[in-house]
């Protein structure tokens, strides 16, 4: 008898092969059989008319703090994610000297918009070294599998103290120590090393985070430590454009070690075609034997602006600041007052630097998020706040104010900052078709007050396969493979991402017709009543981790089969020849 048999579903197995009607049998946490299964299961699920896929593998999250107190890692767990990789962009909480805890929290708060008070209350700090951090994670029950990377900023500050935080040049001895710590982390189970090479990632004081300007000698030495350990992805957060000399050491490292390098790639609003140059460099490097991959997003990096968000267009207005400190319910009563409304929208907005100008003046880039009963992440230029204001003869500020007041003050404005220079997704189509790209950048657990892109996996199926009308859609089988087999293999997780005998039994059962993302909502459920934007999903009939049902119809079962992943995972013998 099998532990679980999923009967009669439309199996999309993660390999890219055409979907087929089949049963899936599970035994001892592994896929035992896919096809006709005459044997019984201790439990059986009728999946007639439903999709059966591998669980999603999300390789770009920032749950490094949340993972220490939250066994569920929502919102990712609500979206069929069964494996997360955290420690991206060079930020994290290990290694950590006892006197640097507050500093590490401040960096994470500034870079990833995770409430510092929540991190300070939630993290218990029963570690100093990275291996001790993994041991701490290993002790907590959890609903899904988690894996970590060694973060450059924490390592640099641990070795160089304030000099590291200030981005001073490292001595050869300091570089050697950073390399040693990196190798120690990878040998203890880290899936790789991450760093930030973007000016967008800044501390609370406005300084770029540690490692941003580290020299090639430092980066190559750390890379060689990965090579000595024998595995590990070298992950970089980039400015969407990487200088030739930077790309050169990435290429040298990848070719010499045979290990993968993954860098983030989004369309720049300033150089909207530069991504093509980066993919051309990547293709050339791959042809030369360097394993370099561009990590891309399936929609814009966009801010959700609301009265409770980190930013909104009126936050600098004197009339708004006078009530900004009030609890939301009380503040909302003032916002409903016509006199307050008039004072806020009529007050001139002062000048702002480029990014601030987008928040406060960028009406041509702001859109209603929910339109005709659906969330619109690919709006047309003629749908902008500026365009609507022009059509109706109203001030843009008045249009925005009234939209934010909808749903009793829970209305939201969408501001796509990156990956949307030409008001469409045609560049994303090209990126997703490129063999040198991987789906990434969901930032699960981060940007709590203004972004909720942990819904990427659900969006991939609901929009890119079914709902898109502005251009090309993708085959279901291809989209499933992109966020199961492909993401898993980049990080050496060869035991999952495919429904085949011997593979880990991480499975989603999905009502495809009902699959959707709910509107964002602001909740205050982090430690210290910290806020975060969340999005729930509809259509997940069941999510299964290691053969155990963890969610049914969107509700947690209470089962905790998730584990800490230590290092790359070997494919079963039956899959090794694929």
UniProtKB/TrEMBL annotation:
Domain Amidohydrolase: 43-551
Coiled-coil regions, chain positions: none
Annotated protein name in UniProt: Amidohydrolase family protein
